[in-house]
């Protein structure tokens, strides 16, 4: 693989098409990108009581997250240390202990092996149970209630990794007393798509909205102005993260604080600083991503006069180079009245649930990308002619807006490929970094 040549192209806003679904690249991505970066696992509100657990995936590793008796959240590989059986098969629930279906070994909420069927009689006195607990995820840290895991014990801290994104997370997740809560359970389904393309769609691509979501325009849910999703700023953040702060053409939103009830405003004004309030009062939608595969959308949906805010987080879990499992969490401010939460949740299900109107539009195009990227022509590695995908938007005709009040490099339109190019550069940095050979004493 000629990485130097690839780098040159990425710098110039071109992404070689063969990289999209190539199986060799996919194997490298699993090891060097997903093996090193922070991956979203759960929101703290999903684990309420001691014994509450959820099961999640870090690409191919099944994970159990469980709250112990002291209220701490532990994360383990969901695999019995006897013969490796996947220990817990439920999505969520509450347990005092986890029992293996194969030979009945039992683990407590701290992952310690506490029960062995027929114990000493068959294993003898010498087997030390404390050596045979569940394997913890090497790093688990959280920010604003968002719990992430990292398989690399030497990774930078979650806070350093999120970097400038923390400021925007504070607006979306930290604006209300009591924080946010997940409503329902995460919806999930499988789609034909490559994880890079789905991540990019949320983090970096408001340009698709006018065409892909044309039906919303025809239904008069969104304006017919072809620039309508471009107004606002596309903000490039550290480590391949990015956020689009979308407003209307006037630079403001039609709904102050995303249409949240006025009773909430004093709370926002107490919890956010002046610059954060300025952005939050003007934004229509926040849409963006944490590299590699966590996306979010905070929007105000519904018809005029009955707009409800909602916040969704999604993980694009790769199942292969041409398949993703989509996980979507719906979150809402705990402090909102129940009636508002319910209406907002219904609006979310109708638009972004597995059968939601807007969801269908995107998945169709993601499938077509992989369908057209797997043949001999699209997978030609010879970069001497133009077999690239085009990421030229805004490359040399756009300067950052120095007056934007938030951190990051803010470009004065959301129709630009700045975040996408920054994602490609970080992708390249990670994928070309050889793993360190560690000696195990
Ligand atoms: Fe779990 Fe044997 S595999 S007890
Ligand atoms: Fe879309």
From TrEMBL:
Any one GO molecular-function label of the UniProt entry: monooxygenase activity
Stored Gene3D superfamilies: Naphthalene 1,2-dioxygenase Alpha Subunit, Chain A, domain 1, Rieske [2Fe-2S] iron-sulphur domain
Signal sequence residues: none
Classification via Pfam families: Rieske, Ring_hydroxyl_A
Domain Rieske: 39-149
Keywords: 2Fe-2S, Aromatic hydrocarbons catabolism, Dioxygenase, Iron, Iron-sulfur, Metal-binding, NAD, Oxidoreductase
InterPro entries: ARHD_Rieske_2Fe_2S (IPR015881), RHO_NdoB-like_C (IPR043266), Rieske_2Fe-2S (IPR017941), Rieske_2Fe-2S_sf (IPR036922), Ring_hydroxy_dOase_asu_C_dom (IPR015879), Rng_hydr_dOase-A (IPR001663)
Highest taxon, organism lineage: Bacteria
Family classification: Belongs to the bacterial ring-hydroxylating dioxygenase alpha subunit family.
Name of the protein: 3-phenylpropionate dioxygenase
């Amino acid at each position: 693989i000629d990485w130097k040549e690839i780098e040159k192209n990425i710098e110039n806003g071109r992404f070689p098409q063969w990289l999209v679904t190539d199986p060799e690249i996919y194997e490298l991505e699993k090891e060097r990108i997903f093996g090193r970066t922070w991956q979203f696992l759960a929101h703290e509100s999903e684990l309420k009581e001691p014994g509450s657990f959820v099961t999640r995936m870090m690409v191919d590793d099944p994970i159990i997250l469980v709250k112990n008796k002291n209220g701490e959240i532990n994360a383990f590989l969901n695999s019995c240390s006897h013969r490796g059986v996947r220990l817990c098969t439920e999505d969520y629930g509450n347990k005092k202990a986890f029992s293996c279906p194969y030979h009945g070994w039992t683990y407590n909420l701290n992952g310690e092996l506490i029960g062995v069927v027929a114990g000493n009689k068959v294993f003898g006195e010498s087997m030390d149970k404390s050596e045979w607990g569940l394997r913890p995820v090497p790093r688990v840290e959280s920010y604003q209630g968002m719990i992430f895991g990292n398989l690399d014990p030497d990774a930078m801290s979650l806070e350093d990794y999120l970097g400038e994104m923390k400021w925007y997370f504070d607006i979306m997740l930290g604006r209300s007393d009591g924080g946010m809560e997940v409503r329902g359970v995460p919806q999930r389904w499988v789609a034909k798509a490559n994880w890079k393309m789905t991540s990019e769609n949320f983090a970096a691509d408001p340009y698709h909205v006018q065409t892909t979501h044309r039906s919303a325009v025809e239904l008069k849910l969104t304006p017919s102005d072809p620039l309508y999703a471009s107004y606002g700023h596309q903000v490039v953040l550290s480590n391949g993260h990015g956020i689009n702060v979308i407003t209307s053409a006037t630079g403001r939103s039609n709904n102050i604080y995303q249409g949240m009830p006025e009773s909430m405003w004093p709370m926002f004004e107490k919890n956010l600083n002046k610059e954060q309030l300025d952005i939050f009062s003007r934004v229509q939608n926040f849409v963006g991503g944490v590299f590699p595969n966590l996306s979010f959308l905070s929007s105000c949906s519904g018809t005029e006069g009955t707009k409800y805010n909602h916040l969704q987080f999604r993980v694009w879990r790769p199942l292969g180079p041409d398949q993703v499992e989509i996980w979507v969490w719906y979150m809402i401010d705990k402090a909102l009245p129940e009636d508002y939460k319910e209406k907002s949740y219904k609006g979310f299900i109708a638009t972004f649930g597995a059968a939601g109107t807007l969801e269908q539009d995107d998945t169709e195009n993601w499938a077509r990308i992989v369908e057209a990227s797997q043949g001999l022509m699209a997978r030609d590695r010879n970069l001497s002619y133009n077999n690239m995908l085009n990421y030229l938007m805004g490359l040399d005709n756009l300067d950052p807006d120095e007056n934007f009040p938030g951190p990051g490099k803010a470009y004065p339109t959301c129709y630009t490929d700045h975040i996408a190019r920054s994602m490609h550069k970080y992708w390249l940095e990670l994928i070309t970094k050889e793993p360190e050979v560690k000696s195990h004493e």
